[in-house]
Each structure stands twice: as C-alpha cells, then as structure tokens.
C-alpha cells in the first residue's frame, strides 16, 4: 500500500514536499514514480526514481524545480517541489514498478498506486 501526503494550497513561487510512504513492501526494491492529473487533463508522469541504481528522471515541465529522493529507513519517497506555478495544480500520485531499474516509470508498468494528494497553486 502506498500513501501520499503533503499536498495543500500554496502561492505561486512557493514550495511543497510530497511524501509517499509504503507499507507491506520495501520501496527500495521498486522504481517509484510520481504522476499528476490536472482537472480535465490526462494523468502525466512527473518524475521517476530507479532504485536499482538511483537514476532519476524528470518531465521537462518540472526539470530544475522538482527533486525526487528517498529515505530507506522510513520506506518513503519524497517529491520536493519548488518554484511552483499555477499549472502545477493537480492531484499527485505515487506509484511503484517492480522493475526497480525502470528509467522513466511508464504509467502502464506501474503495479501499485496511492490514493493521491491535491496540490493547488493559486494566489
């Protein structure tokens, strides 16, 4: 089971840190992806952490602003989001792929999903 937290309302230019906590399995054995779905739009991939070698991937729209990281001891993956823009408003989901070497975490490959956490960027 995956549980996201950390969403909320933030002004443009602000920051949030999302957490993805796992129970029942060890995140380090999986690739972990963050996805988001904005109102009226399809879900899109945001970032991927390949726990096989620590490789990270970011969508162009968030590159340089978002950072994915992990804390093995707490079995948690984080998404640090800086310089937030109104277009970052979405429900954010984390997901796990049992191919821990996955480079981009394609949505169709993900085996488990969290329930999502809402991020709203608005002044």
Account of the 3D structure:
With 123 residues, the chain is mainly β. The strands form 2 sheets. Strands 2, 4, 5, 6, 9, 10 and 11 form a 7-stranded mixed beta sheet that branches. The model has no long low-confidence stretch (mean pLDDT 95).
- Give me the oligomer status: single chain
Which structural category fits the helices and strands?
mainly beta
Largest sheet: 7 strands, mixed
Q: Report the sheet-strand fraction.
A: over 45%
Apparent shape: globular
Distance between the termini: 34 Å
Number of strands: 11
Spatial extent as radius of gyration:
13 Å
Along the chain, the helix and strand elements come as EEEEEEEEEEE
What are the low-pLDDT stretches, counting only 5+ consecutive residues below 50?
none
| Helical proportion, percent range | under 10%
Task: Report the mean per-residue pLDDT as an integer.
Answer: 95
Provide the fold topology.
Layout: E1 2-5, E2 8-10, E3 16-22, E4 31-37, E5 44-50, E6 55-58, E7 66-71, E8 76-81, E9 90-97, E10 112-113, E11 117-121
Parallel strand pairs: 2-11
Antiparallel strand pairs: 1-3, 3-8, 4-5, 4-9, 5-6, 7-8, 9-10, 9-11
How would you concisely characterize the structure shown here?
The protein is an all-beta fold.
Features:
123 residues; mainly beta; 4-stranded antiparallel sheet; 11 strands; 0% helix; globular
């Amino acid at each position: 089971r995956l549980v996201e937290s950390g969403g909320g309302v933030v002004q443009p230019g602000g920051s949030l840190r999302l957490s993805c906590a796992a129970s029942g399995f060890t995140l380090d054995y999986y690739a972990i992806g963050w996805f988001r779905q904005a109102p009226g739009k399809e879900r899109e991939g945001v970032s991927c952490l390949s726990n096989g070698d620590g490789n990270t991937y970011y969508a162009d729209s968030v590159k340089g602003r978002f950072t994915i990281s992990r804390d093995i001891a707490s079995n948690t993956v984080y998404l640090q989001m800086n310089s937030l823009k109104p277009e970052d408003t979405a429900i954010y989901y984390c997901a796990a792929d049992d191919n821990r070497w996955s480079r981009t975490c394609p949505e169709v490959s993900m085996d488990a999903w969290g329930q999502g956490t809402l991020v709203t960027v608005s002044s």
